Amino acid sequence: MTQTVPSPTVPAAFVSLAHQLADAAGAVIRQYFRTPVAIDDKADESPVTIADRQAEQVMRDLVQANFPDHGIIGEEHGSLNGEAEWVWVFDPIDGTKAFITGKPSFGTLICLLHRGTPVLGVLDQPITRERWIGVDGQGTTLNGAPLRVRACDAVEKAALYSTDPSMFKGDAWPAYQRLAETVKLRRFGSDCYAYGLLAAGFVDLVCEADLKLYDFAALIPIIREAGGLVTDWQGQAPGIGSDGRILAAGDARCHAQALARLQDAG
């Protein structure tokens, strides 16, 4: 399965801004990592800290200062001009539970949508200083070095990552179990970092559920431009109206077989 994106060339100024956004968010996050920060619970009972809120705010301020006509969708501070042609999507700390327990598997996710399609994605790990960036038609890099996914022609050979078993609710759990029982290796506790490892050729599948747009949008260009693909559990490109069930793969053959397991068709 091939994902195509009919979009204009992403302007260099937008790519430059994406790096500035990651730099600014990282500077905030490093101040608070492994310090006794206060933890609040949001309405969905997920945790949030001052680091999440401040990191998103500095990114929003930079976008508004540089491209005031662009829209913004953020996990912590909501939507602004979300119908614009170009919209930035922020998850300042994807993996807040990892962050508050001192584990550097979290990341800052930055996506640029063009008319609703992800065309630029950044995954920045501010503690290990690793930065993945995928730009439509320009490939994916990790700290400037080009990346490619690895070949995996059979799901039985695959290494599978997911963040937490609790994300698979209702009928998602038996579907996930069918896949997990088939793969060679499965691991939990990865947050967004697993998608970076997939793009770098160390992981074959990432299967998750209960995600929001800001949890997955940035990861689509990163994996796609490294030669992989990201779909929902029906094999369709996930977007703003996604049900939050995501399957990422480095190899289309493995992806097709994994979809069959999720759909109880193989």
Automatic annotation (TrEMBL):
Enzyme class of the recorded protein, top EC level: hydrolase
Molecular function in Gene Ontology: histidinol-phosphatase activity; metal ion binding
Keyword terms: Hydrolase, Magnesium, Metal-binding
Residues engaged in binding Mg(2+) 2: I93
Domain of life: Bacteria
Binding positions (Mg(2+) 1): E75, D91, D94, D215
Cofactor entry: Mg(2+)
InterPro entries associated with the record: His_9_proposed (IPR011809), Inositol_monoP_superfamily (IPR051090), Inositol_monophosphatase-like (IPR000760)
Pfam (any one): Inositol_P
Claim: Ribosomal protein is one of the keywords in the record: no
This enzyme's EC code(s): 3.1.3.15
Gene3D superfamilies reported in the protein's UniProt record: 3.40.190.80, Fructose-1,6-Bisphosphatase, subunit A, domain 1
Entry annotated with the keyword Metal-binding: yes
Swiss-Prot/TrEMBL GO biological process terms: L-histidine biosynthetic process
Family note: Belongs to the inositol monophosphatase superfamily.
Name this polypeptide is given: Histidinol-phosphatase
Provenance organism: Insolitispirillum peregrinum
